[in-house]
Every structure is written in structure tokens, then in C-alpha cells.
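User: quick one, fold this
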Amino acid sequence: MSHLSIPRLCAVLMVSGVVANAQAQTASSADMNNSNNPLHPAAGLNFQDQYVGSYHDLDDKDSNAFLLRGILPHRLFGAPQIMRATMPVVTSLDLPPDGRTTGTGDLNIFDIILFKAGNVQVGIGPQITMPTASDDTLGTGKWQAGLAGAVIAPQSWGLLGGLVTWQASFAGDDDRRRQNNAIAQPVVIYNLPAGWYLRSSATWTFDLETDSHYIPVGLGAGKVWKYAGTTWNAFVEPQWTVEHHGPAVPQFQVFMGLNLQFPL
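Assistant:
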């Protein structure tokens, strides 16, 4: 599989969604907020792609991660929860001696308990990452565990909030380095007429083991519509790294996807 095939697949999925939009119902403001809200308790299937077009300290290098993500709301001991599983298909940097590799990455699962404090929605719970990568260059080789938390404040104009995760390695290949990582993802959604919206949701990554990090800022757009009882959400968001420490971190990337949310 070539390094461009997965972005093309994501683009095909998005175009397919836009074709379906020709016979779709216009999404309401509530539909738009629910579709972009990671704490909305509805089953979902996401096809997302993170293409890194350039890196700091590396010339003419790119990589890609296609994310297949499933969301399942459920109750355990009477508490509402959301389980989210993400399986990446990764295309690595083209570096010697092995060149470019494409295959599965490490599977991540978290399960968060949902709370409400007035109009603010809160979720917190455990997460685990399994060393399922098909090649050493595509994963960490470590079992990791930690916590995931999110705070979302729905507004009349959109959404404001963020997602934070932390995990550290506790088992795995002894020849691979330890992992200790934190991720923060601020989320701002501004709704426009006819189901369109502006978005900023770039992920800030902190490697606490090596004391490196990069902080991108994104600005993109998307459209939400309803078709065949399902809420569709297609988006594209270019992202630029505005602050970083450490070598070979992303400089410019594009986050795009098609999210499906099914009726409760």
C-alpha cells in the first residue's frame, strides 16, 4: 500500500458522504453540536486521517495515520459511560535503512464515566494502549495505561472544551524505550448556517520521557447533515505547529475525516 493510498481512501469516504448529502436533511444546531461533541452518548463510527506533510529538522519527509474509531455508549453499575476504541493504520517516515512501512499501529481504548455540572459535561476514566503494531516502526512495543478526561461546554453558537489523556508503559518489549505521554486537545466549534461550521481541534503532544513536545494550532471547516437516520460529519482542518521542543516533530499537518453518528 503506497503512502498516498490511505489519504485517498479518506478522501473517497468524504466524497461519498458529500454525494449522500445531495438528498440529506439540513442539520439543526443541536445536531451539529452533538456530532462534534466527544461526550455525546451516541454510537459512532469515525474514518479520520492525520497526514503530516513536513517535519522540523527533516527535509522532504511525510507520514500518515488513518484512524478507524468506534464509539459505544453504555451503562455499568447504573453509570452512563462512553467506550472509544481507535485502531490506527500508519505509514511511517521514509528513513534508512528500512524505508517506508505501512501497517497497523497500537490499539487504544478508553472508557469514561459521564457527569454533568449545569451546562458543562464532564467525562473521566481509564485508558489502555496495546502493542498491536505490525512493525516496530509503527508502534511503541509497550503496554500502556493511564487516564482520559474531557470537559465540554455546549454553547448556542457551538462547542467549547477539550480532551486530555495521559498514559505510561508498564510492560512490553524490554528492548524498547519506556513511554510516558500526555496529550491535550482543545476543541472550538463555531456553527454556521446550513450545517456548516468552523473548527479548531489540533492535538498538543508531550513526551514526558524525553522532555519533547509540539503544539499545533488548526483552523478548518466541516459540514453536518442527516441522511437515512444517520448524522454525517465531514471536515478538513490544516494545522501548523507554533511551538515545539525536540527533533523531528510535525511542522505542518492536515486532519480530515468523516464521522457517522447513529440514532440512539
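User: anything notable?
Assistant: The longest strand covers residues 230-245.
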